[in-house]
Amino acid sequence: MQHRGQESAGIAIHNGGRIKCHKELGLLPNVFDEFTLNNLLGDIGIGHVRYSATEQNCKENAQPIATQNILGNIAVAHNGNIVNSNEIRMNLERKGFIFQTTADSEVIVALLSKEIAKAENIEDALTEVMKTIKGAYALTIMTKDKLIAVRDPMGMRPLVLGKLNDSYVVASETCAFDCVRSRIY
Known about the structure:
Glutamine Phosphoribosylpyrophosphate, subunit 1, domain 1, 6 helices, 10 strands, 26% helix
């Protein structure tokens, strides 16, 4: 949905035990051609188009952000603003975390990795992350066998659930479901 952002676009898929991610600066037709899309096949996927409110427009800030932690490969896409991200970033940097971007999204990924190291599962870790981050946001998180979607406690950012055959789909707007012939759940 190009109207959600014009700075960059990306897709991450999980296939065969690993995450494959393609992201670039530019509009959707410039980032994804038929060859690229045909090579992004998997069981689970998340996508993102970016319009930044505060961060720099550079490839490093494009999403989804894919990384590894003790649970394996994960990818995160984020829409919104985390108003305490600078404070969280500084606290994590004091503990030795190194950041590659200026995006709030990477702060969420780092905080999630920190909490995963202490939690029994990703859901418990994500619950702790949501207690820490403040702002209006929607997140999609992909692991090897899960797609997790969350909104801020006030539900300020849009997130809708749909169903496609026996699978669930999540989007920021219901018009995305028209593209895949999904029904709203």
